[in-house]
UniProtKB/TrEMBL annotation, chains A, B:
Residues 162-269 form the Acyl-CoA oxidase/dehydrogenase middle domain. Belongs to the acyl-CoA dehydrogenase family. The keyword Flavoprotein applies. Its cofactor is FAD. Pfam families: Acyl-CoA_dh_1, Acyl-CoA_dh_C, Acyl-CoA_dh_M, Acyl-CoA_dh_N. Homotetramer. Transmembrane segments: none annotated. Residues 39-157 form the Acyl-CoA dehydrogenase/oxidase N-terminal domain. Residues 468-594 form the Acetyl-CoA dehydrogenase-like C-terminal domain. Residues 285-451 form the Acyl-CoA dehydrogenase/oxidase C-terminal domain. This is Alkylation response protein AidB-like acyl-CoA dehydrogenase.
Length: 600, 600
C-alpha cells in the first residue's frame, strides 16, 4: 500500500539507525522499551492513525464545529476516535505510569505522535492540549490537586485546555485583564474573557474540562510579573472526585477559521454571570514562568502538527506524481505522455519536499531525544548539554519547521496542478490546516526573537556553541567519508559563516543597533534552521553511505537519503549563504524608514 | 481614508513619473488620453472598485456559487457590479471603439484593472474571460463572426470563456480528446467534455455565453498540431443577431475550491445529448497557435490577479500594524504597548511586502507599457525590441509575480497574528484566493519552462540580451547618483552574475544535461524575476531621489520609494546571488536520483 501519512521506512531509520532508541532499554527507566517493543508501538500507532484517525480528517473539515444555543458540537466521528485513543492508552505516552502514563521515551512517543498528527492534527489538539494541562498539574499541583485531577486528565477521561489569550493580549500575554479575587477559603473568583481557546468547550469527548487559566490576582503588579496560574474546571470537583456545580465557564462563540475546522476555537467568559472558582496552581505571580516551563513542549507539538501536514503532503504528491500521466519528456517530445514524476521541474519539487521532510523529521526526533537524554543523564554537564540543546532547538522545531512545512505543503499543491486547488483532493485542506502552525503558540516572529534574544546568549553563548559543535562533529565525520567529503566541505563553509553571523548578531543585539539586529531575527532563525537541517541530512547520509550494499533491497532507500542531503546542501545551502551575507551586511532600511513613508 | 486596495500615490507614481503615460497623448492614436484624462479614469475606476466591487468580495466567498437542478447560481450582488462595469464601459478599455472598446493605452487600462482586481478578482474573471474571448474573435474571426459576436462581447452583453482543459489534458493541452465533425454547411459538430471552465455557465450576467473551444477535427493529427479553435455559443445566434436554439453546452457540475468561490468553475459537456454546433475560428489545426497569441494577455491578467491580492494584503496589514497595540519596545520594555508597526520584526515584514508590491506594480505596468510602445512604434527595430520585452517579461509577470504575491499575502497573514487565520478578517480569503494564480493559465512551472525553453533563446538570445541591457542602463543611471551608487553597485554585481547564469543555462539546456538544466528552470525564473524587481526599484529610486525636496509633503513618499529599493537590494539580492550560485553549481540530485529512491 502506498504510504499515506508518513514514510514508515524513514521513521524507522530515524528511530533505530540515526538515534538508536533501542539503546534506551539499557537504562532502568526505559527497560521495557527495547527495539522490538518500539516497533510494536509504531505499528500500533500507525494502524490506528491510518484506519481510525485519517478517515475522520475530512469530517473535521467539512462538518466542522458548530455553536448553537450555547452548545458547541464537534464532528461525531471524533467521539470514536477519541475513545480509541483513550482505550489504547495513547493520551500520556511518556508520562509516569503512576498517573496513568505509559512511561515511554519521548523519542518513541514522537513516532506515534507523527502518525496521529499526520492523520488528523485538528482532532489531536483535543488530547494534545489535555496532556499539556495535565503536565501543568503534575509539575505545579499540590498532592490533592494531583489526586483529584491528574489521572483523569492523563487518561483522557477529562479534557484540558490552556487559557492565555485575550482580545488585547496575544503575543503580549502580560497585557491580560482577567482578574482573580481571593476568597476566604483560599480559592479565587476568576472574572475575565478569553479568546482563541482550542477545544475550550465540548460535551462529546469528556464530561469535564480542566482549564489552566492565566489571571492577575487583585493588587498584583501590571505586566507579566503579576500573572498567576489557576486551575479552573468547567464543573467543580468534589473531594470524592465526583462532579459538582457548573463553574460559570461559558462559551460565547466559536471562530470561523481558514483551517483546522475540526477543532473548536472558543471564546470563554469566566465568572460573567455567576461564580467561577479557581485554585492557584503553583506560586502566585509565577504564572508566566510556570507556563514557560510547558512552552517548549507545546511549541514542539505545533512543530509536529506542521510537519505532519508536510509529511502527508509529500506522500500524497509523490503518489500523485507517479500516477498522473501528462506531457512528453523534453528529451523525447514525440514519445507521448509520461508520469509527471519524470519531468525535471516536478522532480525538483519532489526533491525539495523530500529533503525538507526528512530533515524536519530528524530535527523533531532529535529534540525529543535530547529531552530523553537530559532526563537520563547522571553527569550534570551532560544534562546541561542536552537541556541546552532542547532550549536552542525549540524555536527551530517550532518556527523553522512550520515555516518550511507551509512551503512544502504549498509545493505539494503545485505538483497537483489544478486539482491541488479542488477541495476533493487533500492538498487544499492540508494548506489551510498547516497555516495556523506558523501563528499560534508564539508566532514564528516570536520564535525568532526567542532564538536571538534568549537562546543565542543563554549561558554566555555556551548553549549555542554546543549546537555549533554538534553540527561540526557531524560534518567532520562526513568529511572522512570520501563520497560525502565534497558535501561536507560545502556544509563546513556555511557553518563557518554561521559562526560569523552568530557573533555579528550577538554583538549588534547588545549594541545601540539592537532594533536593526532584531529586524534580522527571522532571517537568523532561517539560517540557523538551514544549518540544522543540513546537519541532520549529512548525519543521515553518513549512516546511509555506510549501510549501502549490505542488503540489496535497502539500497534504494539509502541512496535516497544521500540524494536528499546532496539536494539540500548544493541547492539550499548556497541560498542560506546569501541570507547570511544579507544579515552581515546589516542594512537598516526596515528600521530607518520613517513611519510616514509607509503611507496609506 | 486608509487605502484599502492599492496605494493611489504609488499608482500615480508609476503612471506619470516612471512611465510618463501622459506622453502617449502626443500620438494620434492616444490623443484623447492626456494626463488629466488618465487621472480621471483612475479616479473613476478606484471609486467604482471601492464603492461597488469591494463590497461584493465577501459575498463571492461566503455565498459562492451553487449548482442545483442543472442551474448555476452566482452571488446576486455580482449582477449589479457587472451592470455597472458594462454601463461604465470598463469591459474592453483598450480595444477598438469600432467594436465597443474605449481605445485606451493598455498601461492606463491596467491602472483601472489593478483597482478592479484588487477589489474582487474572482468577480472580475467574468468580464476578464469575456474580453479574452472577444480578442480571439477580433483577431481570427471572419467579418461575419465579428459583426455577429464582437460588439456584444466587448460591451459585456454576452459573456465569454475559454475551453481548453480536459481531465487528461491540463498542462498538456495537446492530449485533448474533444472532437469536431465537419458538417456539409461548413460548421462542425463538437463532442467532448471540458473541465475547470471559469464562468462556464451562469444566467445572471448575460443571456448568452460565447465559448472559444479547442477541439480536434476528425482525422486531424494527434498532439498540438491537430488542434483547431472553434466558436461555440451557448445559444446559437441567428443571422440577425437574435438568439436561436440551445446549443447543447451542458454544465454537469461545478468545483468546490479552496478559494475564488465567487467564480463558478464548471464542467461542460458539449454535444452529449443533442447537437453542439461550432464554427471554425481562424485556420484549421492552428488552434494552439491562435490560443498562444492570446496567452500573454491572459497570463498577465493572472499576474494582475495575484498582484491585486498582494497589494490589498499589504494595505490591510499596514493599517492593522498601525492600529494594533501589542507589546512594549525591546528598547523600552517598561514603556507599555506600542502599535506593532514599531516592532522590528513587523517592520521587516511590512518592508518585505512594500518592496515586493512596488516592484511588482512597476513590472506589470512596464509590460503593458511595452505592449503600447510596440503598437505605437514605427521603427521596426523599436517594435521588435518592445515586442521582445513583452515576450521575455510575460513569464515574470505571471510566474514570478504570483509566486511572490502568495509570499506577500502569507506575510500579511503573519502580521495579523491569530486574527489572520479568522475568516472575519480579510487575510484568510486573500490567501485562499491568491493561491490559484500560481496554478492556472500555465502553472508557474510551465512559466519557468517557457522562460528557459522558449524566451531565453528566442532570436538567438537577442531578446534576453535586450532585457539585460535595459536593466544595465537603469543601473548605470543610478550609479551616477551619489546617494544610490552603493545600491547600484550591488545590483550591478548581481546583474553580472545573472549574465553568467543565463549563459550557463542556455548552454546546458542545449547539451546532454538538458534535463538537469530544466530542473533549474524555476530557480532561474526566480532570479530573473529578482533582477527585474531590483531594476524596477532602482529605476523608481532614481526618480524619487531627484524629486526629493521639491514638495515637502511628498518627501515621505519619495523616501519610502528609496527605502524599498534599499531593502530589496541589500536584503533580497544577496539571496538571489545565493540562488545563482546554486544554479551555477548545477547539482543534479533531482535528476540522478532513481525513482525507486523516492520510496512510498
Amino acid at each position: 500500500m502506498a504510504q499515506l501519512i508518513s514514510e514508515r521506512r524513514d521513521v524507522d531509520f530515524v528511530l533505530h539507525e540515526q538515534l538508536e532508541v533501542g539503546k534506551f532499554a539499557e537504562q532502568e527507566k526505559f527497560a521495557d522499551f527495547n527495539k522490538k517493543t518500539v516497533d510494536m508501538i509504531v505499528n500500533e500507532a500507525r494502524n490506528l492513525a491510518i484506519k481510525e484517525l485519517l478517515p475522520t480528517w475530512k469530517d473535521g473539515d467539512t462538518i466542522g464545529c458548530t455553536f448553537e444555543n450555547g452548545k458547541v458540537r464537534i464532528p461525531e466521528s471524533f467521539e470514536r476516535a477519541y475513545d480509541l485513543l483513550k482505550k489504547g492508552e495513547w493520551t500520556a505516552m511518556s508520562e509516569d505510569p503512576e498517573w496513568g502514563g505509559q512511561g515511554m521515551p519521548k523519542t518513541v512517543a514522537l513516532a506515534a505522535s507523527e502518525f496521529f498528527n499526520g492523520a488528523n492534527y485538528p482532532f489531536m489538539m483535543y488530547p494534545g492540549l489535555t496532556h499539556g494541562a495535565g503536565k501543568l498539574v503534575e509539575t505545579f499541583g499540590t498532592d490533592k490537586q494531583k489526586q483529584l485531577f491528574l489521572k483523569k486528565i492523563y487518561t483522557g477521561e477529562w479534557c484540558g485546555t490552556m487559557l492565555l489569550t485575550e482580545a488585547c493580549a496575544g503575543s503580549d500575554v502580560g497585557a491580560l485583564e482577567t482578574m482573580a479575587y481571593p476568597q476566604p477559603d483560599g480559592t479565587y473568583k476568576i472574572v475575565g474573557n478569553k479568546i482563541f481557546i482550542s477545544g475550550g468547550e465540548q460535551e462529546q469527548l469528556s464530561d469535564n474540562i480542566i482549564h489552566p487559566v492565566l489571571a492577575r490576582i487583585e493588587g498584583a503588579p501590571a505586566g507579566t510579573k503579576g500573572i498567576s496560574l489557576f486551575l479552573v474546571p468547567k464543573y467543580r470537583v468534589n473531594d470524592d472526585g465526583s462532579l459538582g456545580a457548573f463553574n460559570d465557564v461559558v462559551c460565547t462563540g466559536i471562530e470561523h477559521k481558514m483551517g483546522i475546522h475540526g477543532n473548536c476555537t472558543c471564546s470563554l467568559a469566566l465568572g460573567g454571570k455567576d461564580d467561577c472558582i479557581g485554585e492557584l496552581l503553583g506560586e502566585p505571580n509565577k504564572g508566566m514562568a510556570h507556563m514557560f516551563l510547558m512552552m517548549n513542549e507545546a511549541r514542539l507539538l505545533v512543530g509536529m502538527q506542521g510537519f505532519g501536514c508536510a509529511s502527508a503532503a509529500y506522500m500524497y504528491s509523490l503518489n500523485y506524481a507517479k500516477e498522473r500521466v501528462q506531457g512528453a519528456l523534453i528529451t523525447n517530445p514525440k514519445g507521448g505522455g509520461v508520469p509527471i514524476i519524470q519531468h525535471p521541474d516536478v522532480r525538483r519539487q519532489l526533491m525539495m519536499m523530500k529533503s525538507y521532510t526528512e530533515a524536519m523529521r530528524s530535527i523533531l526526533y532529535y529534540i525529543a531525544y535530547c529531552d530523553d537524554m537530559a532526563h537520563l543523564a547522571t553527569d550534570p554537564e551532560e544534562k546541561e548539554l542536552y537541556e541546552g540543546l532542547v532550549e536552542v532547538l525549540t524555536p527551530i522545531g517550532k518556527g523553522y519547521v512550520t515555516d518550511r512545512s507551509f512551503d512544502v505543503v504549498s509545493q505539494g499543491m503545485q505538483v497537483y496542478g489544478g486539482y491541488g486547488f479542488i477541495e476533493e483532493y487533500p492538498l487544499a485542506q492540508l494548506l489551510r490546516d498547516v497555516r495556523i502552525t506558523l501563528i499560534y503558540e508564539g508566532t514564528n516572529g516570536i520564535q525568532a526573537m526567542d532564538l536571538l534574544g534568549r537562546k543565542l546568549g543563554m549561558k554566555k553563548g555556551k548553549i549555542f556553541m554546543s549546537l555549533m559543535q554538534k553540527i561540526g562533529t557531524s560534518i567532520a565525520a562526513a568529511k572522512a567519508v570520501p563520497e560525502l567529503a565534497p558535501m561536507a566541505a560545502q556544509a563546513e563553509a556555511s557553518l563557518n559563516k554561521l559562526g560569523e553571523v552568530a557573533m555579528h548578531m550577538g554583538k549588534t543585539a547588545m549594541s545601540e543597533k539592537v532594533m536593526t539586529a532584531f529586524s534580522f531575527a527571522h532571517p537568523f532563525l532561517d539560517v540557523v534552521g538551514d544549518l540544522t537541517a543540513a546537519w541532520m541530512l549529512l548525519w543521515r547520509a553518513t549512516i546511509a553511505q555506510s549501510s549501502l550494499g549490505k542488503k540489496k533491497k535497502e539500497d534504494a532507500f539509502y541512496n535516497g537519503v544521500i540524494k536528499s542531503a546532496e539536494f539540500f546542501i548544493y541547492n539550499q545551502l548556497p541560498v542560506a549563504d546569501g541570507k547570511m551575507n544579507a544579515i552581515l551586511r546589516g542594512a537598516d532600511a526596515a528600521m530607518s524608514i520613517d513611519e510616514s513613508s509607509f503611507l496609506s
